[in-house]
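Suppose you are handed only these lines of text.
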Amino acid sequence: MSETLINVNNLTKIFQSRMHKQPLIAVNDVTIDIKKGHTVGLVGESGSGKSTIGRCLLRLIEIDNGEIIFEGQRLDKLKKDDFRKKMRSRMQMVFQDPYDSLNPRKKIKNIVLEPIRLAGKMNGRDPDLVAGELLEKVRLNPSLINSYRHQLTPGQQQCVGIARAIATNPDFIVLDEPTSLLDVSVRMNVLQILADLQKTLGITYLFISHDLSTVQVICHDVAVMYLGKIIETGTVNQVFNTPRHPYSKALLSSVLLPDPSKKHLSCELKGEIPSPLDMPSGCPLHTRCPSAVPECIHSKQQMQDIGEGHIVACMRVVNGEI
Ligand code: ADP
Ligand code: MG
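From them, the structure of the protein bound to magnesium ion can be written out as follows.
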């Protein structure tokens, strides 16, 4: 068993929707453990709250309720300034669009060195050398240190984003859809670089993606989100090979289960995903779930271990009824 790096307990994040003038529950009472050296995939349709969880973990936004515990320490209780000083260099982020996230006016070397400089950790080292070494770690030619963003391919740009994220030797990186804008061949290359960095540097990743086949390649564990809630979590094997929650079955059957002998693992949902401004009572899936019974309309679903850390928030699964 690996030890836990981050415990997220009952995390809730509510936005005030300006357009609708009412609260929008983006993340609803989410509990998840992130094991040291593992990659946890966070999957779910667009708008399910994945990016919001990533942003809460790095304190890019403040949480409304719950706890974020990093190596036993309450991150959400740290003063902003203390967080910046103690934690910023240990937790980094790679964004979906490298083009957007790299400053067009800065040379690549200054982009990748930025987190080291912010942490005041250059310690008199030669910037060109340090930047060149970082580029080598992501399999880029060190001669690119004097280039600018527009001179790089999208794959190279994303590698620069990764080089910047690893510059301070972080323990944890949130990867928010890091390969979804890349061509398939480039995507595999970037995933391999991320996996290799994890092996050599022991980094823990939260890998946010709506692309399930990518998650299957790179993740150890996976959590499935629906309307701000995690509804199923476990190892990739558990969740992808024996999905139990009707929503996971529906999500996976569209992409990963073309094999007719696995028909029992598929599920068809009714209707459309509700607006997060108009959250269903009880189980969030009850309005669409073919297995819903009247109790699902009223009872909140608890996350329950159905064996060996495979956790499902569906009383019908837990009771062995479906
Ligand atoms: P995902 O990453 O899974 O696509 P997000 O975490 O980006 O989902 O968004 C979850 C929900 O929160 C969505 O309904 C989104 O519109 C809403 N949301 C995200 N950020 C904000 C914000 N700053 N203000 C208001 N609503 C937001
Ligand atoms: Mg997102």
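What can we learn from it? The mean pLDDT is 94. The longest strand covers residues 4-17.
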